[in-house]
Write a structure and sequence with these properties.
The chain is mostly beta strands. Helices cover 5% and strands 28% of the residues. The chain has a domain at 39-142: Roll (Chitinase A, domain 3), CATH 3.10.50.
Length: 149
């Protein structure tokens, strides 16, 4: 498995320059993205309780970005909907179904393959064939749909 790393310049005058360093890396989440291309990076872990299932009512806070510009955002109280109701793009709903309450994640929904974002259709101010980036917090999983006003 290939992991991408960010390259940084090294300060050769730093006290640790030239020394062997040992690091521990904890994998927060992992999913086979080959089929959907949807990638989720955990920013803040959740409470560890079970993830929502399709049909569950969930409340999220989110900000959506396309081509570097915010095109949609929820209120601080959140956005409540039934997971699987197609209230959001399918790639985002799939990623939310793997989160636990309290978890914050950055979710990348690519334009290709089609069917997970807006693809060639675009929507409103979002042009066709662009990747979508969401920052999402799963606030709660509830049995009743509560409208967040």
């Amino acid at each position: 498995m290939l992991l991408q790393a960010e390259l940084r310049k090294v300060d050769i005058n730093h006290p640790l320059a030239g020394k062997d360093l040992k690091a521990t890396v904890t994998l927060m989440s992992c999913e086979d993205v080959a089929k959907t291309g949807v990638q989720s990076v955990t920013l803040t872990p959740g409470d560890g309780s079970p993830s929502p299932r399709f049909g569950d009512q969930v409340t999220i806070c989110y900000e959506a970005v396309a081509k570097g510009k915010v095109f949609d955002t929820s209120s601080k109280k959140g956005f409540a909907f039934q997971l699987g109701s197609k209230a959001l793009v399918p790639g985002l709903e799939k990623a939310i179904s793997a989160m636990s309450p309290g978890q914050k994640a950055r979710i990348h929904v690519p334009a290709v393959p089609a069917g997970f974002g807006y693809a060639s259709l675009g929507k409103g101010t979002v042009p066709a064939n662009v990747d979508l980036i969401y920052e999402v917090e799963l606030l709660k999983i509830g049995s009743e749909l509560e409208l967040a006003l």
